[in-house]
What does this fold into?
Amino acid sequence: MNKDLTVGKPETVLWRFCLPLFGSVIFQQLYNIADSLVAGKFIGENALAAVGNSYEITLIFIAFAFGCNMGCSVIVSQLFGARQYGKLKTAVSTACIFSAVLCVLLMLAGMIGGGPLLRLIRTPETVLADSNLYLDIYIWGLPFVFFYNIATGIFSALGDSRTPFCFLAVSSTSNIAVDILFVWAFDMGVAGVAWATFLCQGMSCMFAVFAVWKRLAGIQTKEPSPLFDRVLLQKIAAVAIPSILQQSFISVGNILIQGVINGFGTSVMAGYSAAVKLNNMVITSFTTIGNGISNFAAQNLGARKYDRIRECFHAGIRMVWCLCVPFCVIYIFFGQYLLMLFMKNDSAAAMLTGRQFLWILSPFYFAISAKLVADGILRGVGAMRQFIVATFTDLILRVVLAFALAQWTDAAVGIWCAWPAGWGIGMVLSVCFYRRVYKKYAALPVSRPS
It folds into this structure.
């Protein structure tokens, strides 16, 4: 059901909208975690390292899909808030055409450059073949990744966060079952893990696209909407491209850091692979809530209800900090038990690596979550220049410090210290930019367009 985010108490509306998004994150991460869990438990440490190594490259492709999601979602949110339903339908079809072209180009690039990229990041020969195999199968499933992201972005733009949650709940739990079936029963190894993800993502994509088509068909317009509009494409691209750059540069940075980590051996790679999945579950949770905040801000921007944007920021901070507390406690005191889920043999070196990673990063979740809330509002109101500056500052600091500290301390623990530094500086910049942008909108007249 479509939901107008421009009416009702902002904090209540935001909580009701974002809680299903948070639930969706849990199930979305089950896709990623299931691959590593099954690989580590049923195949071995090398398989876990191979899946984790390839995962950093797949994040580049996900970055592009995420950018298309946000470009479509923010513009559709603004049009929905402004009640411009004809343009809304055109924006959806325009975003689909743009995403299809981009997806084909990425598939070609992945098929040609995947293997060389794995070698470039110093993938050990013991895991190179499995890493390459996993990556190749993943690339063939990219259309499912792209159009599923477009579909969920449209649902969020229409204020419906429950439908994507239902799709993910079914498909991600199915993915775990198919993972185990292919690896344990059929003995397919790493290929089984990859094909399970391919099949389950494909099914969830088809159901989501069909549901979007039915939802849009129910929105009445006075006349047929064009399939493509150049002006709307420019608006979508203005949000999508910075979002793609944000996520892809983060992924590139992670790949560079992965290259440094690979120099410490398979055990450290395996420990990092397990811990980074747990960390990414938290960061993705905050990012998804930030995406919901973008939809809230965009709808209210379209409706010219600028005061609700400020209330959204404060409600968002309270929401993410409520999530930070349990994550910090669990990762600091019980992280080792979660890491054991990924490991067939409890390698002391791998376990120590994972525990150190979680100990160092988890107390700084309060900083990164506040940054992502501010970023969500910046993106929702179209302040993409400020959004990019804050993001790139965080990324550059993390990569540079990771290389420097790895050399200075001559141990992987130095690399983990780069994350908090980047997050802290990025948070300060994002919050300052949000305050500056809000002051500009606060000075404008508040009214709803006819």
In short: The longest helix spans residues 45-81. DSSP finds 15 helices and no strands in the chain.
